Structure formats: structure tokens, C-alpha cells
Amino acid sequence: MEITLDPHLCAAISGFKLGIIEYDNIIIEESPQMLKGRLQLFQESLFFDLEEKNINEFEEIKEWRSIFKLLGKDPNRYRHSAEALFRRVKKQNYLPSMNSGADINNFFSLKFRIPIGIYDKSKIKGNVVLRKGRRGEVYVGLNGRENQLEDLLISADKQGPFGSPFVDSRRTAITQTTRNALQIVYLPPSLNEEAARDLLSSLASMFTQINGGDSSISIISCP
Hints:
The protein has 223 residues and is of the alpha+beta class. The protein has 6 helices and 10 strands.
């Protein structure tokens, strides 16, 4: 599977880069109590932090709001997934446990304040390109709604869009039958490559510690 960035995307976003983690031979199941507890405790701690701080003051949140604006989406109407998670926590609408893959995704998204997507590789058809959504492109998202993708950053295979830092599609969602997965980490452009690799290594290590399997890490960036 080849993963590329569309040149028009690079022209719009200076310093754009993504973290890519591929997992093989994993087992997705109900999260162990350790992970459930860690996710819950982190949200409770974050809630108290957010009582005294505006969500949009976090640099990573701001950077991704700016990216949405650069692509032509109003970040006040279309909030990226990390900001949406923060807003849930601020309302004490804590995330329930889903499965051992999605829970790690949510934990790291909250911890590093960035969107992260995870997809079942068996449901991705052909190569993947990250590009701007086109007029008329839609998919049914994990939010249960049909989402209009025009001007959003999207991931697409030969069947069309399947992922976005706004909300991912149901088509490629991981389940307990997933054995191989692709994780797209939407890095803030300001993050240097060394720090980005440390983040990806930490994420991959925790993921395989809980779900088994092997991981490979790469960073793709605009020239």
C-alpha cells in the first residue's frame, strides 16, 4: 500500500506532514481494565485542567483549526476530532470504552491534542492519497450521519474517501475481526521530526503491548 500527499494539499498547507503506523497480526478485543481505567482517569484529570483554560488556547488544537480554515472549512462549524473530544470532556461527557484499538486512539488523541485515525487495512482498496474533499463526496461516518466532505482533508482509496481528521467513515472502521490496521496521525506542522518520531514510537509501543502484533512507522511530508 502506497500512501501519498496530493500536491494541491502541500501548496495549501506549509510544513504539512503525517505520521503513518501500520500494524500486522493484531488482536482487537474488549479493552483491558488497565486501559479503561487509564482513559477514564486521564479524562477526569483533563476536565479539571479545562475549567481554567480555553480549549482553543492549546497550540495543537489551534494549528488544526487553522488547517481547516486554510482548506476552506469554518473550524467553528467543522471541529477536528481532537477538539471535539476535548469539548466532550469539558462537558464531563466522557468517552466510553469501545475496543482495545479505538480506546488507545482516543487516549493518544487527548494526550497529544491531535486527530488520529485508525482503519482496517483489509477494507482499504488499493493505494491511499491524502487530499482535499471534492464537491459531492460524502460518506456515512462513525457519528452515524452522512458527512459532506467538500473542502475537508480526507484519505481516499480507489473506492473513494474513507477517513478525515473531522470524522472517519464506517466503511474502514476497526472491529474485533481486524487483524491488520493503518493508523494516520495528523501531526501539527510545528512539530519537528524527532519529536514526531518519539510520539509515533510511544503510540505504536502501547498499541502492540495491548493488541500484540508488529508495527512499522513512517512520516510522509510535503517537499
